[in-house]
Structures are given as C-alpha cells and as structure tokens.
Fold each of these.
Amino acid sequence: MDHSILLEGKLTDETGKMTLNVNQTIEINISADKARSQVNQFIHLEISTQMHAGPPMLVVNPEGTSFWRVPVHLTLPTYGDVGRVGFLHVNPQTGDIDTSPVVMTSLTQAADVLARRFASPTAHTI
C-alpha cells in the first residue's frame, strides 16, 4: 500500500527551487495499516460507529518527532461518507492515540455540524 509523508515546518512565501534535506531516523513499530485499525477501533468504541478512519499520513517535523495523522470521516446511512471531521494522531513507536479533550471535542463538534447539515430539510446532495 502506498503511504504519504508530510514534512511539517514553516511556510514560505518564496517561489522557485527549494533544497530540502531530511536526515532523520524514525522507528516505526506501528504500521500505517495498524494505526488506521487502532483509530477505527477507538472511534467505534468511544465516539460513534458512524465514523471511520481514512488512510494515514506520516508527519515528520523539524524537532524530530513524528506521528501518523489519521483522518476521521463521518458516514451517514442515507449518504455514505459525507466528509472528514478531523484527525487523530498515533505515535508510530508506541501506538498511543492522542485523545486529549481538545482533540475529542473538535472531532465531535465537527461531526455534529456536518451531520446537521445533512439532516436539515434543505439538504440535497453532497
């Protein structure tokens, strides 16, 4: 399976050629597929069975830390997958999922807003 790596850092307003040197050793004990599976299990047990995990992206930042960024999508019975409501981050060494109150509130609020959009009488199509 093909997976992406996102290099996190400062944005630049410059254009043209850019030299990028990445020299980091990252220990990956939790694969992308395992991270996705863990997020699916967590959200089904702790949040909603109407959510599912998307394909993870490995995020590497200049401080040397890394994590799997796993998108979380909302699915509605009548419409199917209606969109991403946020991300959960999984430590690639330990498998720990960031379930801080801020992250959890953000996910549930975004899911509620998206679900209401489809439940309104004026909702048509995705």
Amino acid sequence: MDLLQHLITIFAENGYVAVFIALMICGAGLPLPEDITLVAGGVIAGLGYANVHAMFALTMFGVLLGDAAIFMLGHHYGARILQWRFVARVLTPERYAKVQEKFDRYGNRMLFFARFLPGMRTTVYLTAGTTHRVSFLRFLLIDTLAALISVPFWVYLGFFGADNHEWLMKWMHRGQSSLWVLVGLLVLVVLVSWWRHRRRARCGLD
C-alpha cells in the first residue's frame, strides 16, 4: 500500500511525535485510516526505529485522547455542532438520525463495536456526546476496553510483519475479519465466565 509505505517513511524520520499527530488526525475524522496508522507505528518498531511496547502505550494514549476529544466536543456543544461546516460533512442530519436509532436499539454496545467499524467511530462518538446518552467516564471505560483489543492487534501485527511485507499485506487484508473473530472469542469467554460464576453462586445458595 502506498499510504502505508508513506507513513512508515514519515514515522521512521520523525518518530513517536509523528505517530501521535497522525492519530490526532484520525480522531478528527479526517481521511487517514487508524488501522494503517497503527500498523505503520508497529512496523517502524519492528525496523528498530522505536520500542514496540512504548509504541503500544503511545498509540493507546493517542487513540483514547482523540476519541475523548470528539466525544467532549459533542457533549459541550450539543446538536449545535452539526451546523459546523466540517462536522456537517461527516455527520449529516440523516446519518445523525440513523446513529441515534442504533443507540436506541443497541445502547452502549454501539460505543464498543463502533471501534471495529471503520468510518463509523467519529459519527458514533460525536453522537454519543451530543445526545448526552452516556457519561464521559462510562464512554472512556467502554472505549478503553475496545481499544485494548484493536490497538495492540494492529501495532503488533506491524511489528511482527516489519521484515515480511507479503505476510503483512496478507494479514492486513484479513485484519478486520480477524478482529471480529477475536472480539467474538473474548465475548464468548466473558459469557462463559459469567455463567460459571452464576452457577457457582446458585450452588452456594443451595
């Protein structure tokens, strides 16, 4: 991918600061894919330009800060923000109404799964803020849980594929579907653990 190679070059020359700035651009809803940015950060770590664990920490902070900024903008300005020219391009009245409908149907689960839906994150987080459906702390908790799945996935994928371009490209194409499988497995583990806990609690009462 030309974009990936371009980002790798920029990040290798400018280090962590460039990665952080790029994530802020992603969080603002501009056309820079977050997953490719995270992979590029992992790649430069794999090539020796950064420490991969420090890169993971930085990217987690950058992702959460960008998401929080979008949420707080919506929370502070409310529906008035929809009149801003830049926001109106990203979040049209029709799209805003559709996201509100999704919130009515799925509740806070929308916030969690939005992280795994490219192109939806900014609109969902902004809508969550404008509608005051969730407190900032709850939003941050849900977003952090989701980011702890997606961010290390992309960063370490880039790290391990830094010296194998063909392998990296193959798994980047598979990445989104692989993420959904990972999310499904984690949800299954949580449900099984919850069921076993309830079963033990009932047995204890008996």
